[in-house]
Amino acid sequence: MPRLSTRPKSRLLVGLAALVALLLAVACGGGSDAPQATTPAGAAPDLSGVTLRVADQVGQNKAVLDASGALKDAPYKIEWSDFSAAAPLLQALRANAADIGGAGDAPVLSSLGSGAPLKVVGASRGSPRGVALLVSKDSPIHSVAELKGKTVSPTTKGSVGHYLLLGALREAGLTPNDVEISFLTPQAAGAAFDSNQIAAWSTWDPYIALSEAKGARVLRDGDGISTGLGFTVASQQALENPAKRAAIADFLVRQGRAYAWTNSNKEAFTTLFASLTKLPEPVAATVVGRRNMLAVPIDDTVVKDLQRTADVYTEAGVLDKKLDVASFLVRSLGN
């Protein structure tokens, strides 16, 4: 009787083994976007040599994290830098002068639309009342429609103030061409507003609260126009470093805890916030009272809201071309 060959069976076993190995590799996150393992399985990465460079706006995020104690025992060092607005903060990230930083949805889109090598790694949602269109206490203007023919500053181009102005004008039946738009830094806009060189100022806290303390009136806040979304943005270079990527993931978790702490400890936070930011305590209380910031996952709702904002900016000419925002979002860090 002829002897049967065992070679086909051997080839089958080899093929099955290769397939199992491939499936295990995929299941363990072996895709191109996954950070490469640098420590044994199950072991936490050593972050003691990592310095995470965090960019902030007017010291607000640092105040939140310091007051809550959320960074206590963080296994890495943090180097803070401070900026007056989102535009210079995002420029610092683009220039690799910082690893991560926080900004509103509108300025983040402006930066991404200009080709900045950045990714959105964390999201938060707060009260849309934290952005507002202001007029002076003695202004005869009592509706957005009355701004026609007037000079208005939305602060910096592509800011949350700019987005609110666009929405408020559309709601009132006006277009950007119906007003004289003057883009200014927060400090320059504040000075122009105080000296009545501009009829209205679209800005955000703490600038709203500081102006309200001088008698400014809110003509239209962001409720119903602004998404209230804020984002933590990371440089591509930082994300490509496995140790920094792990530190960023840890920072996002701590940041989320800090936001929750401020909402349940408003009185204590107000005192600490005033001390850390050097704001007058009544102004700090106003800012804290309407923050209500919470970390949220980067989910389909966030993607949809951000895409809507991007489409408005494309229509207004702030963005040169339509953006597919989903391609800039990283859902796997801190969620």
TrEMBL record:
PROSITE patterns xref list: PROKAR_LIPOPROTEIN (PS51257)
Domain of life: Bacteria
Primary location class: periplasm
Range of residues in the leader sequence: 1-27
InterPro entries: ABC_SsuA_sub-bd, Solute-binding_3/MltF_N, SsuA/THI5
One Pfam family from the record: NMT1
Key words of the record: Signal, Transport
Compartment(s): Periplasm
Assigned protein family: Belongs to the bacterial solute-binding protein SsuA/TauA family.
Protein name listed in UniProt: Aliphatic sulfonate ABC transporter substrate-binding protein
Species: Protofrankia coriariae
Lineage start: Bacteria, Bacillati, Actinomycetota, Actinomycetes, Frankiales
